[in-house]
Amino acid sequence: MPKAYEVIADDLRRSIREGERKPGDRLPSETDLATHYKRSVPTVQNALRLLNEEGLIDKQHGRGNFVRRPRTPAVRCNSRHQWEKDRARKDRAKRAETGATEHDTGLELQDLVFYAKYREVKAPKDLADAFGVPEGTALVERTYRTRYAAESAPFNLVTSYLVRDMVAANPDLLDETKEPWPGGTQNQLYTVGIELDRVEERFTARPPTPEEARELDLPAGTSVILLRKTSYDINDRVVDISDVTLPGDRTELLFTTPLERW
Prior knowledge:
The chain is α+β, with helices and mostly antiparallel strands. It is built from 10 helices and 10 strands.
């Protein structure tokens, strides 16, 4: 038999999913809900806690509980890498028409707010080993955040690394003011004569850190998906390493594997 707070949560959940309560609507106060359901305030609080953990409502300090507004989903498909390579050699006007975030979300360029920050760092052992360079080698660390203009949280948290000497022939690749770069990293590498052969992606998941939960505006109990993306050129060199933190409540991973005919 379900517990009293579960019965209350079920009824509120139904009212949200069936559209009786709209995104942004404020729920009645805990006292009013307790009166309506003929239960104690602590029982109502347990029901609301459950809905908050499911990401259906937001508790705003001093204001009450509100139906959470659905966030724009992002579908990350492995075909995106070939799509990026196909456009890497297009002219600037063609490359500027759309980017990877638009590809994943269906949004338009004018819908997005983009942030990039570059700095030079010394390669720690794990990155040095991955790139096959000595520890302490100069890397370009690039931090990216892209969000829908109507939302406050970015779609993901991205930190990308390039070996500085590998890309220094084009000074623009060391300059954050050139971002957003039409055609993305594959076109950037193309400008210094680098062609990608393959992209390796490894995914894991874990609870978010407090900082990740805050920046990604995650509902309580939501995990993050961690992606380590390693790009290899046609000479089997590692040329780009990206660490991407994806919010589990709005990211879908889609993998389609073509199979050869017998």
